[in-house]
Specification:
Layout: H1 8-14, H2 20-30, H3 35-40, H4 48-62, H5 67-71, E1 73-76, E2 79-82, H6 95-104, E3 111-115, H7 121-129, E4 134-139, H8 142-155, E5 160-164, E6 176-181, H9 214-222, E7 227-236, H10 242-252, E8 255-261, E9 267-273
Parallel strand pairs: 3-4, 3-6, 4-5, 6-7
Antiparallel strand pairs: 1-2, 7-9, 8-9
Helix pairs in contact: 2-4, 7-8, 9-10
């Protein structure tokens, strides 16, 4: 890439080692512009300090760092979330999990938990759409929980309880209308862990080791002790894990076991209801 192209158009064109749209987004961010504003100023000279910041971002993007980490933010559920390398980048398919919880829980003052909350995307989306709900987010990572708390303060201030601890540990004695989770579910030998982007995300949030089902089994086996009668467990999982997740839910005694497909047509979210007496 030339050290000082004359204008934004040439600078983007010179960033040939990354996707053009990524280059546009990164240059806009380096210049404190929106992408639309940048495109409108494509022929404007780029200040040297902006070009220097852009060059650093391009080098990191070429090395596989997700754009969301370079920007420090990602949109989810039409909300702007802070993201750092301490949390997974929220993905569109996880919005399906939010949709399913909203579909099942109709009680105005419902208590809902998001386990392994990461950036807080699920908990914040639920609290944002249902201000009367009591939403709890848990995570074992203090760094991830700090990110979640900042996102909660921005979009649902004072309406989410954040608790430190592994899965159900912080929830002793409590029961919920719904428990949701997007746990680590990639198998330890899955080549996807080496893919660009993914390899820069926190490994513990991606894989529990082994066949990838360990965290899902923990959630399925433990959830009945924390669900109210008729409560729902809603889980995100890998696109080939639906049959195993459904079988585990049925074996544990859940009813109304169903899987739902994401926009790409893959089974992505499975849900089940804990029976009423």
């Amino acid at each position: 890439m030339p050290d000082s192209p004359d204008n934004a158009h040439l600078l983007i064109q010179a960033a040939s080692n990354i996707d053009r749209r990524d280059a546009e987004v990164l240059l806009a961010d380096a210049w404190s512009l929106t992408r639309t504003q940048l495109l409108a100023r494509a022929m404007d000279p780029v200040p040297p300090e902006v070009a220097a910041r852009f060059a650093v971002k391009c080098a990191r993007r070429a090395a596989g760092v997700p754009v969301a980490y370079l920007l420090g933010r990602r949109e989810f559920w039409s909300l702007d979330f802070e993201v750092t390398p301490d949390v997974l980048v929220p993905r569109p398919e996880t919005e399906l999990l939010v949709e399913r919880v909203l579909h099942h829980v109709q009680t105005a003052g419902a208590e809902v938990a998001d386990l392994g909350t990461g950036s807080g995307a699920i908990a914040v989306a639920l609290a944002h759409d249902r201000p009367a709900w009591r939403v709890t987010g848990t995570d074992w990572s203090a760094d991830a929980l700090a990110v979640a708390q900042r996102n909660g303060q921005r979009h649902a201030a004072g309406r989410i309880e954040w608790l430190a601890g592994d899965w159900f540990t912080p929830l002793a004695g409590r029961r919920f209308e719904a428990i949701a989770s997007n746990p680590p579910y990639i198998a330890s030998d899955d080549p996807a862990l080496a893919d660009d982007g993914v390899r820069h995300e926190p490994r513990a949030a991606l894989t529990p080791g082994g066949d990838g089902l360990g965290a899902l089994r923990t959630l399925i086996n433990g959830a009945p002790d924390y669900l109210k009668p008729g409560g729902w467990l809603v889980l995100e999982h890998g696109m080939s894990q639906g049959p195993a997740v459904r079988a585990a839910l049925v074996a544990r005694g859940f009813g109304h076991v169903t899987s739902h497909r994401d926009l790409a047509g893959h089974e992505r979210v499975s849900e089940a209801q804990w029976p009423s007496p």
